[in-house]
Amino acid sequence: MGSLPKHEIAEMMRSSDLFVLPSRFENLPCVLIEAMTSGLPVVATRVGGIPEMISERDGILVPPDDPAVLAEALDQVLANRISFDSDDIASRARARYSLDVVGHSCTRCMTS
Q: What is the domain extent for residue 96?
């Protein structure tokens, strides 16, 4: 699809059923935060900082480089989509990663 404006990407996320990030290496992928604040359940690989970001209520983590397990996780989320509460996923993401929360944490660090 090429490069798209941010508002189009946000709309695509909001109209999706889930978000998949099958990375081999990651640190703190902002795209997961964007997906979760859109209320999407996540299927992602268990690498870098991702396990600290995704709980069982947010989605499923899989090992990297295992396409069979990745496909199984995708099937599981799609078959049980109702078990993932979009509002709950978005609320947890905002409580942890919103500008107010992150900005407040940064301000505390700078004044300590």
A: 6-111
